[in-house]
Design a protein that fits this description.
The chain is an all-alpha fold. The chain is built from eleven helices and two strands; from the N terminus they run αααααααααααββ. It is globular, with a radius of gyration of 31 Å. It comes from Hipposideros armiger.
């Protein structure tokens, strides 16, 4: 049993590392796509020239531009992008419905039949789908969708990452310090996140690249300059237009949204350590198996090392008159002889 559990854990570790490599590949491809976009349209920005209505349309515009001489290829790209997005959303909705039925509906409504649970799962799928559509409509009002999503995920995921990091890396962390650090991380993350939403940074703080249109046909005498990184988020309807900006707005609220997760993680770990020390963190009994060690990291990279597991045979008591097979009961057939004694027929 221990061998099977060890192999399962190693498989989980390897799958996470492989997923990490895939995420790195996606990130590199996204960076290269952005560099290719700016390299091709540095003198004729489609967004500034009103050739596209949103920055999210720049990449499809690039594909249509460079692949216009190859019939069917731009449509294949768009079809792949939409199919990948829809498949991800549909699987997430079905997973949410299944988890809700298993964890929330079944334990409290044990009298429901399988047919009722099936209808409940389908109804939850419709409900979650409507909520996703509503969230998408709300996100469209926030400007840049990617920036808004990363901001929200950073504000929520940063403190959660700090909580797990505190429990794994800090031996003296306790529940009081963990809860205090989590609350402090959420408070700081939402403070800077909501503040950046209400008071977006000025262009001179975000230092966006200049977008020009002098290379476009018919616009040689016009030059426009705007922001591609911070401006979509600044078009939020929640923005507060203030004539006078304070140092808090120009410094703390001008932090890039990519640092929201880092701030939440660091605050959670730091506050959790400070609270755990005076609240008895060093006096608690510690099980070293729940801490991250060097062996846990190095053992996950032994991809080509084949482990030879030997099966240990535990001997069983052998009755008089035969040999014992541990796969069966040592007495398969019992019958009484004339003397009233019990004999066993063994295999």
């Amino acid at each position: 049993m221990d061998i099977v559990w060890e192999d399962t854990v190693q498989g989980i570790y390897r799958s996470l590392y492989i997923n990490l490599v895939g995420l790195w590949v996606i990130l590199v491809c996204a960076v290269l796509s952005g560099l290719a976009l700016y390299s091709r349209y540095h003198d004729c920005d489609p967004w500034t020239a009103n050739k596209v209505s949103a920055p999210d349309q720049l990449l499809p515009y690039l594909v249509l531009d460079i692949l216009q001489d190859y019939p069917g290829v731009p449509g294949l790209f768009v079809a792949c992008a939409y199919s990948g997005t829809l498949s991800t959303v549909s699987s997430s909705i079905n997973a949410l419905a299944a988890v809700t039925v298993e964890d929330l509906v079944k334990p409290y409504f044990k009298s429901l039949s399988e047919r009722s649970l099936s209808w409940t799962s389908q109804g939850l799928s419709v409900l979650f789908g409507v909520l996703c559509i509503g969230m998408a409509a709300l996100a469209s009002l926030m400007g840049g969708l990617l920036q808004a999503a990363l901001s929200i995920f950073g504000m929520v995921g940063g403190p959660l990452l700090g909580l797990f990091s505190l429990g794994i890396l800090v031996p003296f962390a306790n529940s009081t310090g963990a809860l205090s650090g989590l609350l402090a991380g959420f408070a700081i993350s939402f403070w800077v996140g909501i503040g950046a939403q209400l008071y977006p940074p000025l262009p001179e703080r975000s230092m966006p690249l200049s977008l020009e249109t002098y290379g476009c046909n018919g616009t040689h005498n016009e030059t426009y300059w705007t922001s591609t990184t911070e401006m979509p988020f600044s078009t939020s309807p929640f923005q507060v237009h203030s004539a006078e900006r304070t140092p808090l707005m120009d410094n703390w609220y001008s932090i890039s949204y990519l640092y929201f997760s880092t701030i939440g993680t660091l605050v959670t770990v730091f506050v959790g350590m400070l609270i755990s020390l005076p609240t008895g963190g060093r006096k608690q009994n510690l099980d070293r198996r729940f801490l991250l060690t060097k062996e846990d990291i190095l053992s996950s990279f032994d991809f080509f090392k084949k482990k030879k597991h030997g099966l240990s045979y535990k001997s069983h008591p052998i009755e008089d008159g035969g040999t014992d097979n541990p796969a069966f009961n040592h007495i398969e057939l019992n019958f009484a002889d004339q003397s009233g004694k019990i004999n066993g027929t063994r295999f």
